[in-house]
Amino acid sequence: MKNLQDFGFGTQIRKSPYFDATVRWGAQGFSVYNHMYIPRDFGDPEQNFWNLVNDAILCDVGVERQVEITGPDAARFTQMLTPRDLSGMAVGQCKYVLITNAEGGILNDPILLRLGENHFWLSLADSDILLWAQGVAVHSGMQVNISEPDVSPLQLQGPKSGQIMQALFGDGILDLRYYWFREMELDGIPLLVSRTGWSSELGYEIYLRDSAYGDALWERIMAVGMAFGLKPGHTSAIRRIEGGMLSYHADADIHTNPFELGLDRLVNLDTTTDFIGKFALQRIRDNGITRKQVGLIVDGDPMQGPNTSFWTVSHDGKAVGKVTSAVYSPRLKKNIALAMVALEATEPGTNLQVVMHSGETTATVVERPFFDPRKSLAASGAPGPAQVTA
Length: 390
Hints:
Order of helices and strands: HEEHEEHEEEEEHEEHEEEHEHHEEEEEEH
Largest sheet: 6 strands, mixed
Strand content: 25-35%
Low-confidence stretches: 382-388
Strand order of the largest sheet: 12-13-14-11-3-15
Radius of gyration: 21 Å
CATH architecture of the largest domain: 2-Layer Sandwich
Number of domains: 3
Structural class: alpha+beta
CATH topology of the largest domain: Gyrase A, domain 2
CATH superfamily of the largest domain: Probable tRNA modification gtpase trme, domain 1
Distance between the termini: 41 Å
Oligomer: single chain
């Protein structure tokens, strides 16, 4: 077991309320996300993948910081931040949204939660949206308060997660629908629980609303979950690439627009609602895009871990784009990748060349996601039709 001193952590990067618990439970490596340490290594990443898809894993994702928006104009302000139409969003509902700038570039792809008529959380990917929102608010002319609350999520993901939640919270939790949440307590610990997650599997996010209970919450969930095969884990690059899920700064950034990612459904341009980037996105829609994200099957021996740099993609000897995320899938027994390439090289079946760290190889364009395209696993257990467009 490692000691905290072995990692050499400084004070300028924050630790989550679960940090000490993850070290006790075997975390062997960390990276930085939203100015906070996140566990990235509990041993074999392939075993972590199998733990996720066969049983369940508990992940410290306290790095998913919340931007809290309140005040009389909170609903109108929140709509201004995103091109997705929020007019039908109910209290208790979550939505996957994009935050865009004036040029239509993506600044973040958070989960939005509506806690009240004028009370919202943006559960963030890795970027400084707290500062963006505060800056927008200064000149908005709206009455809003923008802050970061004391909220730190855990992800309980995998096919056994529903049984573990039932053991923790009782049978009532089974009625929680995909992309909805409830405010709850566990042993007096204040929580918000949602049917969401970054795994493409059945799963829940448990938002702790008082960091003092971090250690107790982690230990309580692990104690109950071990009977169901629960293991401590980290977000799986293998599973998220299989599911075609974006990793901000890798698969999207400020220079990427929603149409290039095939996320047209998250952009509502034919409404009277105003939002930042609306005119730029209308222009992009009308003029068309020049590149697009695709899936690739990459030939060669199994990759030893995910890519750590962007790999150049060529077509007929001409550079046409880059691989943004790549990994070997032990389930599919293939090297799979997400890539951003020029439009002329996006037809499924197109043969491309990829320059990896180990040399050049060939690849074939395929549809994405690579596994469970209708998200039936993540939406399983939801009453009624699966809400796969959440």
